[in-house]
Amino acid sequence: MRTIDDLDVSGKRVFVRADLNVPLDGDRITDDGRIRAALPTIEKLRERGARVIVAAHLGRPKGAPEPRYSLRPVAARLGELLGADVAFAADTAGESARATSAALADGQVALLENVRFEPGETSKDDAERGELADRFAQLADLYVGDAFGAVHRRHASVFDLPGKLPHAVGGLVLTEVEVLRKLTDAPERPYAVVLGGSKVSDKLGVIDNLLGAADRLLIGGGMVFTFLKAKGYEVGSSLLEADQLDTVRGYLERAEREGVEIVLPVDVVAAEKFAADAPHAPVDVQAIPADRMGLDIGPRSQELFAAKLADTRTVFWNGPMGVFEMEPYAGGTRALAQSLIDSGAFTVVGGGDSAAAVRALGFDEAAFGHISTGGGASLEYLEGKDLPGIDALA
Ligand SMILES: Nc1ncnc2c1ncn2[C@@H]1O[C@H](COP(=O)(O)OP(=O)(O)OP(=O)(O)O)[C@@H](O)[C@H]1O
Ligand SMILES: O=C(O)[C@H](O)COP(=O)(O)O
Fold it and tell me: Which residues bind (2R)-3-phosphoglycerate (predicted)?
């Protein structure tokens, strides 16, 4: 694979696909970790006289502009961090993008509007994605793939565009892959994987493959409730993937057969509604009231998880244990992060929100082996799946 050092970028327009999918509160960026992680590649290109056109997605808009998913606040933050103006194109691959790209001088940087405002970006139809990739290709001379967090997506800006321009892999993708390889090539055992978060349907599938790799699987976050329901418990109004119950039963049976331990919470913090000020209390998982939703793992589960991590030598963690953005439901995630540190294991934390949680809860990033920008992407890498955004760079 070519790296950016192999490209002659001086005076060229370089399209950099980055993962700038940061958490926002209104138009305030609550964690800029992914923007910081994107800086080295952009800075290196600028220093070498490239005209840098950055493209990224934010959230999951449905192929049309939605103001709350605009990348405009990200352009401002990127400019602050670079210490340089970042031009912002008001569209993704239209008139504004073309004019912005044409106006760039050597060493200057522009950010395009959210690529997911274009229906072609995420389309299942090759021709539709190809048409958008053609429009992207007109904006630039070269392509750099550096969106590690999105390399598992077969999307136009990640997968199709590199086929249309001379391309190279970015430094962030290289670093991430190098660290994750330590987890796939002979991890020190016991090796535990901790899964949480809210992208349940995305991440349930990985469990099947992880059962073959990890010694222990700890489940928290929104994923818990599909497991509890599969075991016959009532889960009230908690997040539930009802169509996955049979699949999950299959995982539980396979884990039992193969001697992989699946550790589930024994209690959860159950709230009246999805709000910080809602009445809430820890309840045993056998006794979740019908009108309550589980928004965090409970104190007994925190202890159980700590005990199950204490002797591990390698841990991969993706997905917060609860709705950590609201203080009443942050305890599980805070306790889990501390247990990881206390274990002394080689720890990798992956995912936009998981990494943000570690920082928001005041942990020192250096206390973890590696903080990855990819959640779903790291999981798919660990599963050994082909990653379209990496394959396309070969
Ligand atoms: N019990 C729960 N119910 C609802 N939401 C939950 C629950 N537990 C955690 N969450 C939410 O999960 C979200 C993070 O999940 P997500 O799967 O996106 O993780 P991630 O680390 O960002 O991974 P990725 O990078 O793949 O997006 C947080 O915003 C958190 O509030
Ligand atoms: O947050 C992430 O994991 C990446 O930015 C990819 O986002 P997606 O899951 O919406 O494709």
Answer: 34, 116, 153
Minimum-distance ligand to the CA of 30? 1
Position 205 scores a pLDDT of 84
| Ligand 1 atom nearest residue 373's Cα | 25
CATH superfamily of 4-170: Phosphoglycerate kinase, N-terminal domain (3.40.50.1260)
> If 0-12 CB within 10 Å is exposed, 13-18 middle and 19+ buried, where does residue 62 land?
exposed
16-33 pLDDT tens trace:
999 999 999 999 999 999
Q: Is the CB of 265 under 6 A from ligand 2?
A: no
What is the interface pTM, i.e. ipTM, of the complex? 0.94
3 state DSSP class of 257: helix
* CA of 198 relative to ligand 1 center, distance in Å: 4
Cα-to-centroid distance, 58 and ligand 2 (Å): 8
Domain boundary assignment for the chain: 4-170, 179-383
Which of 153, 378, 381 is the best mutation target for the ligand 2 pocket, counting ligand atoms within 8 Å of the beta carbon and taking the most?
Answer: 153
Identical fold between 4-170 and 179-383:
yes
In this prediction, residue 119 carries a pLDDT of 98
Task: Confirm if 28 and 76 have CB atoms less than 8 A apart.
Answer: no
What b-and-e string marks burial along 123-143, b requiring 16 or more CB atoms within 10 Å of the CB? beeeebbbbbbebbbebbbbb
Does ligand 1 lie within 6 Å of residue 347's CB atom?
no
Q: What is the mean pLDDT of the chain?
A: 96
Is the C-beta atom of 354 inside 6 A of ligand 1? yes
Residue 186 or 55, more confident? 55
Whether residue 208 is predicted with pLDDT greater than 90 in this model: the reply is no
Q: What is the mean pLDDT of residues 91-112?
A: 98
pLDDT of residue 250: 95
With a 6 Å cutoff on the Cβ, whether 61 touches ligand 1 is: no
C-alpha 385 to ligand 1 mean position (Å): 22
Structure token pair of residue 106: 């050597």
| 280: CB partners within 8 A, 6+ apart | 269, 270, 271, 272, 295, 328, 329
Q: Known binder of ligand: residue 164? A: no
Q: Which residues are catalytic?
A: 34, 199, 352, 376
CA atoms of 226 and 243, how far apart (whole Å): 9
- Determine the topology of domain 179-383 in CATH: Rossmann fold (3.40.50)
pLDDT reading at 56 higher than 90: yes
